[in-house]
Write a structure and sequence with these properties.
By secondary structure, the protein is mainly beta. 8% of the residues lie in helices and 36% in strands. It has helices spanning 28-34, 142-145; strands spanning 2-5, 12-15, 23-25, 39-45, 49-53, 58-64, 67-72, 78-83, 86-93, 108-109. Strand 7 (67-72) and strand 8 (78-83) form a beta hairpin.
Length: 146
């Protein structure tokens, strides 16, 4: 359904199912990992993630206990993340998609941690930490484990 790649084009992947719901995470960890004001990550089962090339340069970094972030070691592009508690659920970095993605964000999360230089001016619900699960269930995240 979707294809994605890293900036240098070495890592290429395909997704064989639709991505789940997503929001914008403004926590410090996501901001640092994405290099911008927030991260946009959507869940998909690892069974539906198919690495087509770049396995030789795909690296993982444990950014906090039990959280692993996968990226291209040539260009640094983030591709996905997962938790050791839910290793079969990946959180795809939406900026790595090459095909159109029509879903819209359900929430802004961790706005208590947001960058002071980023105004949020849309009408998407904002939450100081996790959104309630009835607003945004973030499969494969620490919210999902609680």
């Amino acid at each position: 359904m979707h294809k994605g790649s890293c900036l240098c084009g070495n890592v290429n992947y395909e997704l064989s199912d639709e991505l789940g719901d997503f929001g914008y995470c403004h926590c410090t960890s996501c901001r640092k990992a994405s290099g911008t004001a927030h991260a946009a990550n959507a869940p998909i089962s690892r069974l539906h993630f198919h690495l087509r090339s770049g396995g030789d340069t795909l690296r993982e970094y444990q950014s906090s206990p039990g959280k692993f972030r996968a990226f291209c070691s040539r260009c640094g592009s983030p591709i996905y993340a997962y938790l050791s508690g839910t290793p079969n659920m990946l959180r795809i970095r939406l900026g790595s998609l090459d095909t159109p993605f029509a879903k819209q964000p359900k929430a802004h999360t961790f706005v208590s941690d947001k960058a002071p230089w980023e105004p949020i001016t849309d009408r998407i619900p904002q939450f100081d930490c996790w959104a309630p699960k009835d607003v945004l269930l973030q499969l494969g995240s620490r919210q999902d484990l609680s």
